[in-house]
Design brief:
20% helix, three-stranded antiparallel sheet, seven-stranded antiparallel sheet, Jelly Rolls, 3 helices, alpha+beta, 2 domains
């Protein structure tokens, strides 16, 4: 009788354990390397006072700087400060850029053709020159949406810097 009790317990445990073991494990960094998405934990609550954000986004050398503040598989958020020199055209094959200008004055050249550029991998085209592009002067409060495949070039107006927040979403 004792054997039947143990057998029944083992059978019950098997019925409970096997379906659980058969479930697909959540993706990990290792599966990401194999071409599948990795599990990224949810973002925690974050509060940064304006003074901290300013330290992250203001550099006295008027060169381009950036700080990624959120990085996930299909999107990331970054603060970017552009100077008035050393900026290069780029085209993103898979990324939408949603941009909000925070401070300063800059320009965007967009459209046309990107000639003499190099393939930086992952459908990212960098460098060269833009031909036939349109130019807009950007100010604090302006918002832009750049779809994948649109050549563009950001830069500050002469003697200035400008800072923007960018949300990049993979298409």
């Amino acid at each position: 009788m004792r054997f039947k009790g143990i057998s029944a317990a083992l059978l019950a445990a098997t019925i409970v354990i096997l379906p659980a073991a058969a479930q697909t494990a959540p993706p990990t960094a290792q599966t990401a390397a194999a071409g599948t998405l990795r599990a990224t934990p949810p973002d925690p609550f974050v509060y940064q006072p304006a003074a901290e954000v300013k330290v992250m986004t203001q550099w006295p050398d008027r060169k381009t700087h950036s700080k990624v503040v959120i990085d996930h598989e299909n999107y990331f958020v970054e603060y970017v400060t552009r100077g008035d020199s050393g900026n290069n055209p780029e085209t993103h094959g898979h990324w939408y850029d949603y941009i909000h200008v925070l401070d300063g004055e800059g320009t965007i050249q967009y459209g046309g053709t990107q000639d003499g550029a190099r393939d930086a991998g992952n459908a990212e085209i960098r460098g060269g020159t833009l031909n036939g592009a349109k130019t807009i002067t950007l100010h604090a409060g302006d918002r832009l949406v750049l779809p994948p495949g649109l050549p563009h070039l950001f830069g500050a107006t002469s003697g200035n810097t400008f800072t923007y927040l960018i949300f990049k979403h993979k298409h």
